[in-house]
Design goal:
By secondary structure, the chain is an alpha+beta fold. It has 11 helices and 6 strands. The chain has a 6-stranded antiparallel β-sheet with strand order 1-2-3-4-5-6, with no helix packed on it. The longest helix is centred in the first third of the chain and has 53 residues, at about 1-55. It is elongated and about 90 Å long.
């Protein structure tokens, strides 16, 4: 009897694996079709909006609008992927339930958890692929789209929005052991890839935050890893000011990095974000937006897996029980509710009410709890 039981167990496991692989193939195909459809629709509306903006700029044509819209494609793909996972999963599981394939599988003793393993893995892999591969491509293309938009369709000074305002900067002072330098410029101008500052004050502190010296300069600029301060005066504690024609203050910043700190985090790759966040923290710039964006990219695979489980929980109700349309509609509504929760949590994170990690992971964790509860009710309730 034992060999027969072992053979029966192996046969059941083989059937479960084959069925799970079949469902995963159907699920991934449905998600990709839904992703292509939704992304194409969003890109079409984006192209139409760009055409409206292009009409007010005679130096830009429809080709510019088409190029910018095409460069936005990977960016929209990442944003839409969780919803494509939800809608594609709902369609896939509803179709399999309607054709009684899942009903027969469950009647044969295969649990929901067994045949959902492969689709869940597929959803997580799609999210991981978007984070690790599509995100770097998206950052490069989105950055180029921003440059085209700036060149043809905008009239301001670009992503450095503090032009004409003031700049505060905190950085390590490499000439003082464990020292820091606090730079304040009352005038900032960005022109032709160069950064110029004016009315500059620099406080140089040691590791105990005691004042080492103070530097005043009417003008300066950022050049190849140095703040070049012209016609500067240096004041040491309990001494008279000393005139110094030029002071070179080392810095980790470049013009590009200063621009990026005021630009959208979407222009930075997931691989570049940790180092850039550390640089922002050292330089005194706020890194909250970049932290939330980085954590959102890390949470994307989990969010896609959550959407897979939510789709299964809302769409695998047998049609003979009735209320299928209401259940599917509830699943779609739950997906958009998660989107609303994610945006609210993001705003709380940007305002400093929630830590960036919590603001990015709340939607995925909340959706996962909801999906597991639904599946437990469906399987055991």
């Amino acid at each position: 009897m034992q060999p027969l039981a072992a053979q029966a167990f192996r046969n059941s496991m083989t059937i479960a694996f084959t069925l799970s692989r079949y469902i995963a193939r159907q699920f991934v195909l449905s998600v990709l079709v839904m992703l292509a459809s939704l992304t194409g629709m969003v890109c079409l509306f984006d192209f139409l909006d760009l055409l409206r903006r292009v009409s007010a700029h005679p130096n830009a044509g429809a080709s510019v609008a088409a190029e910018i819209a095409g460069l936005h494609l990977p960016y929209f793909t990442i944003i839409i992927l969780p919803f494509a996972t939800l809608l594609g999963g709902v369609f896939c599981f509803w179709r399999l339930t309607r054709s009684s394939e899942l009903v027969v599988a469950r009647a044969a003793g295969i649990s929901v958890w067994q045949f959902l393993t492969a689709p869940l893995t597929g959803a997580i892999l799609l999210g991981a692929l978007a984070t690790t591969v599509v995100s770097p491509l998206s950052s490069v293309m989105y950055s180029w789209a921003e440059k085209l938009d700036q060149h043809y369709l905008r009239s301001d000074d670009g992503p450095l929005s503090i032009s004409g305002g003031a700049l505060w900067l905190r950085q390590s002072d490499q000439t003082i052991p464990h020292g820091i330098a606090i730079l304040h410029a009352r005038g900032v101008q960005f022109h032709n890839t160069a950064l110029y500052i004016s009315n500059i004050s620099v406080l140089r502190l040691d590791q105990n935050n005691d004042l080492v010296s103070r530097i005043e300069a009417p003008t300066g600029h950022l050049d190849h890893g140095f703040w070049i301060l012209d016609k500067a005066s240096q004041v040491l504690p309990n001494e008279l000011p000393t005139y110094i024609d030029r002071i070179d203050l080392p810095t980790d910043l470049t013009v590009k990095r200063v621009q990026e700190s005021f630009a959208s985090p979407d222009t930075l790759s997931v691989w570049a974000l940790p180092g850039f966040i550390a640089l922002l923290d050292r330089s005194g710039f706020s890194s909250i937006r970049h932290r939330i964006h980085f954590q959102s990219l890390l949470a994307l695979p989990v969010l896609c897996g959550t959407m897979c489980l939510v789709a299964a929980g809302f769409s695998m109700r047998p049609s003979r029980h009735g209320g299928v349309a209401r259940m599917i509609g509830s699943g779609v509504a739950a997906g958009f509710l998660l989107f609303t929760v994610s945006k609210v949590a993001e705003q709380f994170g940007k305002s400093g009410v929630l830590p960036p990690v919590l603001a990015a992971w709340v939607p995925a964790i909340a959706g996962l709890c909801l999906a597991i509860a639904l599946l437990l009710h469906l399987e055991d309730g």
